[in-house]
Write a structure and sequence with these properties.
Number of helices: 5
Strand order of the largest sheet: 1-2-3
Shape: globular
Structural class: alpha+beta
Amino acid sequence: MTKAAVRAAARALGIPSWDAPAAPCLSSRVAYGVTITPDRLAQVEQAEAFLRGLGVTGDLRVRHHGRHARIEVEMRWISWLTERRAAVTARLTALGFASVELDPRGYRRGSLLADRRPAG
């Protein structure tokens, strides 16, 4: 079965999460060359939970680049989060990130592969 077929079947069966966004392993958010640790995974998990708590839906990733966090969301959320940048930055720095970036290109599947910039 394809993903689309599974979603269609789940919808027909009335399963409420039929259209839930993909949720790959948290380690897929950690940049290449950055050691994956429980603390780093917790930072990502808590940062994404915070953004979801603000109301962000759909595809969302907080990419962990060592001391730097890069937020990727669907394009429809970019301006909404830009308006809340101070609160978002405050929360993510409280989680231990030294700096926070909202990626203006939005969510991009596999962006850690595409960017391959040094962690910092």
